[in-house]
Structures are given as structure tokens and as C-alpha cells.
Amino acid sequence: MKCPVKSLDNKIVGEVTLPGEIFGLPVRKDILSRVIHWQMARARQGTHQTKGISDISGTTRKPYKQKGTGRARQGSLRSPQFRGGAVIFGPITRDHGYSLPKKIRKLGLKTALSQKLALGELLIVKDFKCETLKAKDLEQKLQVMGLSSALFIDGNVVDSNFLFAARNLINIDVLPQEGANVLSILKRKMLVLSEDAVHHLEARLK
What we know:
Elements: E1 2-6, E2 12-17, H1 20-23, H2 29-43, H3 102-118, E3 122-125, H4 135-145, E4 150-154, H5 160-166, E5 172-176, H6 182-187, E6 190-194, H7 195-205
Helix pairs in contact: 2-3, 4-5
């Protein structure tokens, strides 16, 4: 399928052919959901932890004798029913990530790209080269293009001026092609690919 190629000045400078096996797949919300949950699980730090009874500093003696006091029997002041005591079955430091088949991950990325194209939220730009690194100059160009929430994906190396200029713009993200992922693509309204990114994604996903 043919798609026009624009410049950052919002002028059509050519066209590119997008392969149907990558950009023309039916939208499967189940696949997108699986990949997003997998990404979010991997992003969790998992550093939460509570103290078990062996982690509480304190005496190990019995609080009072077993019988004759009229109170419930107790074996330790470090038990969870006492103030400053342990937490039973509390969270521990662990990795929340899990494995997801490569085929599912690849299909998820293809589905996300296809969804953006189907909704008219995909834009192909020749390159992301900027003459200056001022955020104000880039913001003006994006306003002309109608981009207020967008993810820009370039080739292996992103133009340094563009990267610095976009760094302070709200709702504008920039990634190299190797960092393209489902969550980042669906997070922003528009997906903007450079010609170089299209060729790299085509080689990566075929």
C-alpha cells in the first residue's frame, strides 16, 4: 500500500510502499492486551518488602508465663499482633516479569502499526533533521503538522538536534527503531515514522 512521505515543513516530498504483512493486519485487541501487560509487568521494580519475624530486632524471650495470667498465651513480642511486630505473608522483593513468546511480541508490534495506519494516525516523514535544537522552533513545525501528541521513531540514530529540541515538549516522545514497542505506540495519538525507520521495521518484522 502506498503512503505519502512528508517533510518536517508539512510538504509532500514522495511516497513509500508499506508492506501489507506488517501494516495491513487485522486489529486484535487480545494480542495488544497481552503484550502491554507483559511490558508493564517487566517495568515494575518489585522492590517492595516487609519485615518477617526473623527481620525484627528485639528480644527472643517469652513475654510472660504461659499460664495463670488470664491473658492469651504469647511466645514472642515480635509477633504480628504486637506494635512494631512482623508482617505475615507480606510482599517480598521479586521480579514481576514473565516470558512471552517472540511470535506474540512480534505480532503485537505489527498489530499496533496496522491499527495506527487503519485509524489514519500514521505519518511518514522523510527524516527528522533539524537545523537548530530550540524546542520553540520544533514546536512551531509540529503545530503546522497538527501534532500535539506523537511518538517519533527514527532509524538506528536519531538526529541530535531533533532529540534535544523534542526533549522538553509535552506529549512528544522520540525513539530509535530498536526501541519501538507496543505500549509507546499506543500511548500517543499519532505515530510518526522516518523513511529509515520504515525500512528497519520492515527488515525486523519480516
